[in-house]
Amino acid sequence: MHIIFLTSEFPDNQNTYGGIGTFVKFLAEKLVAQNVKVSVIGIYKNDESIEVNGIKVHKLKKSNWILGKFYHHNLKIQKKIKEINNYSPIDFIEGSELNFAFFPKKTSYKKVIRLHGGHHFFANELGKKTAFWRSYQEKKSFKKANYFIAVTNYVGNQTKKFLKFNFKFITIFNTVKLDAFYNSNPIKEIPFKLLFIGTVCEKKGVENLINAFYFIKQKFPEATLDIIGRDWSFKENASYTDYLKIIIKEKNISGIKFLGALPYDVIPSEIEKAQICVYPSLAESFGLTIIESMSMGKAIVASKIEPYKEIVGNSNSVLFHDVNSIEDIVDKISLLLTSQKRREQLSLKSRDYVINKFKIDKIIEQNLEFYKSIS
What we know:
The protein is an alpha/beta fold and 375 residues long. It has 14 helices and 16 strands. The protein has two domains: 2-175 and 359-373, Rossmann fold (3-Layer(aba) Sandwich), CATH 3.40.50; 178-357, Rossmann fold, CATH 3.40.50.2000. The protein is 42% helix and 19% strand. It holds the Pfam family Glyco_transf_4. Residues 17-177 form the Glycosyltransferase subfamily 4-like N-terminal domain. Residues 184-350 form the Glycosyl transferase family domain. Keywords: Transferase.
């Protein structure tokens, strides 16, 4: 069996990427261990073909076209697929919601979309209008694909609703590299330290968290907030982190640090130092960072969105706040900062819950069974 993953976020020593890239790398490594051939194709800074833990990674140089970059990238990807298929026949190509827009309808390999949350999903979840060009591409991509995997039931059902396209999907939760996360040592916890991990962008609710932290500081002057994650571009390629820093300066908020995108292997030690992990997302398709924090037995405050509730809602290990309520974020964080007993109640069963629900072998087997079923 030979599977190709289409992603431009595969982690390497030079670049740190978000949750999808981390997910693909971990899943690919586990599939290779099961004697599955795995290749990765994506758009990067330079042309390069390398092997990472048995995974063939083909990096294609970013287009210098002024217009039509997406189409040019597709031409490069199609050329590489044809080249690979000639010497190592491809069974499946897995991509995101947009990936197959300009692929042929009929192919020798099967095309699989794994729904991590596409343009229609996030635009509608955030109450925004869809962009014509991205909407067009996504609709074409779904019509070209053969099979669909959703990372939660919610993202699958909502995507069907927003696309107005009745496709069948199977739900398989994301694999999580739990062996990299350990049970935290309470001695290393820093009092009043809050931690956010994730891409620094609008949908992650970071602006709400910063506005809430303004009031937290009035109640708890010693409180600090570390923000870990890569920056995001918005509004004509402006930095979202710079936008947030303006808010911080205008409100004269102290104690906030932007640590940027840190290497994956140092994330556990940063989680261990936090007293509370906060994930105030406005919209998500899954919740990788919550699971990682739970696996370390941390107290967590998170927004009451459906994907979070689907994956950890019955764990009694997360304190949920109303999605758009700054006041409720403040109340929930304040409760945990003042009550060690409540923090301990949340973290008591969180590690066991995550390890049992997200057993790596079980999820890898679900992926293998899916691919075997459509062979």
